[in-house]
Amino acid sequence: MRDLCVAYGRRGGGVWRALSGVSLGVDAGEILAVLGESGSGKSTLAAALLRLLPANGRITGGEILLEGADVVRMDAVGLRRVRGSGVSIVFQEPSLALHPTIRVGEQIGEVLRAHGMRSKRERGERVREILAKVFTGDVERIFSSYPHELSGGQQQRVLIAQAIACEPALVVADEPTASLDSTTQREILALFRSLRDALGIAFIFITHNPALLAGFADRVLVLYAGKVAEVGPTREVLFSPRHPYTQALLKCVPQVEYASAGRRKLPLPVVAGAPPSLAVLSQGCVFEPRCEERMEMCPAREPAAAMVGADHEVSCLKFSA
Amino acid sequence: MEPVIRVENLVKRYASRELGRRAAAFTAVDSVSFSILPGSTLALVGESGSGKSSVALCLACLEPVTSGQIWFDGRDVAALSERESRAVRPKLQIVFQDPATSLNPRWTVGEIVAEPLLVKGRVANRERRERAAQGLERVGLGAEYLERRPAELSGGQRQRVAIARALILEPKLLILDEVLSALDCSIQGQIANLLVELQRALGLAYLFITHDLRMAAHLADEIAVMSRGKIVEQGAVETILRGARCAETQNLLGASLVDRETEAVRER
Question: What is the interface pTM, i.e. ipTM, of the complex?
Fold first, then answer.
């Protein structure tokens, strides 16, 4: 993805710049986590990758190269081919993403049918194979279940099965664990890793929760107000963040140790203020109004990405000036 | 000190609605007992389906109790009729998880916050407005928010409005059902700080319901861990964190272990 810009038309005129010049790359078999708060553009990024933006959303610049083909300029026929078999998506709320009155096995089979597998028997066999990859145990029971008969975690596994049915190179997962409890969350993360190891699928994992990422993602990209704040190896970004926003964000998460250290009920560090309006084009750094380390030039100059370590880039004038 | 609320052997069964079969009851809450002191917080922690929200609904008089007692304000709330419970409810308020669905989108913030006053009885328009403005002030929103509607607010601001509405009748106990879960990390901290501040200023007792053991450890004085309708472990925060005995607690703690690693590296 190179210099991707996405804007939404607003009622009453004007545009909302959801993404401004986002570049990222994902290698085969890599897990890239996109960390961002609401309004940072992370779901727009997922939708743009599959050209699934709502009617008022438009890609206004940049390119998305998927195994060499530019998704931005693809026609409807090309898109149909690439969705599912090149790149696929797992949505946040599994109970909404599944059809309530069609058996799970058939819903997964639909993906195969859309990609040209005509024989019902062949589909049935293939679906069972896929289910065996994401479930341990009673595949037959899952195959003939309706979504409401499954737990949230099981429903999410079904969505993952749909996503990998045609063996895509890349799966985008938009907050796939947000509605699950912590045990199930960890099981789903383990499943993503095992699929990556077994099938070589690359994942873009979109989340607002930094606590999930240690030991899971290979790299982390931090998104703020539609721009990349920081990107680098997971260990570096989480344990020695360089961008003031990443630092502030990670400090917000209360630690279990706080309680034992007598810091219980003391004020938690917060990022003061609120994210900027994306309707106004900013001249300088988008984080500047909330930044505690702002410098004189920050409101006037937009920071370019600067290397601060091997494969670790930060968009902050502290480093690029 | 006399506890604000004392729950004894609370049981909540839901009749299951399966066609053609005799209804088998599902026990969501199974002999749960606890009490909360004024100005203190009990965190009820558990995974989804553990029964913690059912406890909240029973305490808020929103679901009839199957058996057991809920002692509040010198009365057993569980035994009160609908009419009688109206006298108790103002002192015992609930805030829900998702402010996007718990606030009426067509009403202004002022109307939302002042509605409990209308329900309670005759309060003049002007006074309602004034008290709504004061209520908003208390949660860090100015009077300029009175005329706004929920859609114009951010998630954190909406949750502040929901808290202001819960506080306007000056309750003794707030039931906070996953009030931080739908918010972003940076906003969670702001609301958590607000809750601590309000507790100090108003001497409120909180029942803080969550699946996030880290937040529970930060905000609570005592933690009760629920699993399959029962409280499996209960004690002071420090004790629970030091020696989590039950598999459920360890599981919940497990989610925070990665952070322990984070902290260790950060301090190095």
Answer: 0.72
